[in-house]
């Protein structure tokens, strides 16, 4: 039994803690038994987020993890492997009766992660609006790829979130509400000309860019090279740039050499049992 879970990009600019999408890069989680682990897999220790989630969901024993998602880079590693651990526990107890729609992965994953915007797309795939346990899928009506600029340094989500503060100016809140509405509309209508304005943000990105100016440099370079839009992926430091498939190589080549690029597609499946 192997649980395959996609990487994610959260916030998408203005949709702080409310928007996320799944990407075509994966982690795999399974239960260690008498058979050997897949090549490249590692046994998770007691503090690994996959093992913690597995135990929290009632799993017995230990899980292995095979991962290709960059860790501490804003691409949903911890959320993905937590989802994998929870589903592994459900499969262990339920077997073939496991169902994505009845899984507790969203609830327990959000409890452990602290916010649902990475967890929900890892579970369900695609682009989602999420609030608590309410998940609303958003159709993407254009052919797009995501050029991910992944720097060689990491950031702390908890430290980054702590700098944002607990209050938001009314004008900034209204600004982000309007851009989030524009962004969902642009996705669903395929209006790529609206995307650049629709991904503007006044709540979190400037605060995070101040600590990582190389990320702002990468975002600006990608937009100047022709990307439709871009945003700081999750809490960063990865920067996501959305464009047509024909633009991807040009945009990737324009990004700073202090990071590497990955050209990914939207994963529309979410967590699956392989």
From TrEMBL:
Key word Transmembrane helix present: no
Transmembrane regions: none
Keyword terms: Amino-acid biosynthesis, ATP-binding, Kinase, Nucleotide-binding, Threonine biosynthesis, Transferase
GHMP kinase C-terminal domain: residues covered: 184-256
Cross-referenced InterPro entries: GHMP_kinase_C_dom, GHMP_kinase_C_sf, GHMP_kinase_N_dom, Homoserine_kinase, Ribosomal_Su5_D2-typ_SF, Ribsml_uS5_D2-typ_fold_subgr
Organism: freshwater metagenome
Ribonucleoprotein listed as a keyword: no
Pfam families, sorted: GHMP_kinases_C, GHMP_kinases_N
Record-level Gene Ontology MF annotations: ATP binding; homoserine kinase activity
Biological process terms in GO annotation: threonine biosynthetic process
Stretches assigned to the GHMP kinase N-terminal domain: 61-126
Protein name from the UniProt record: Unannotated protein
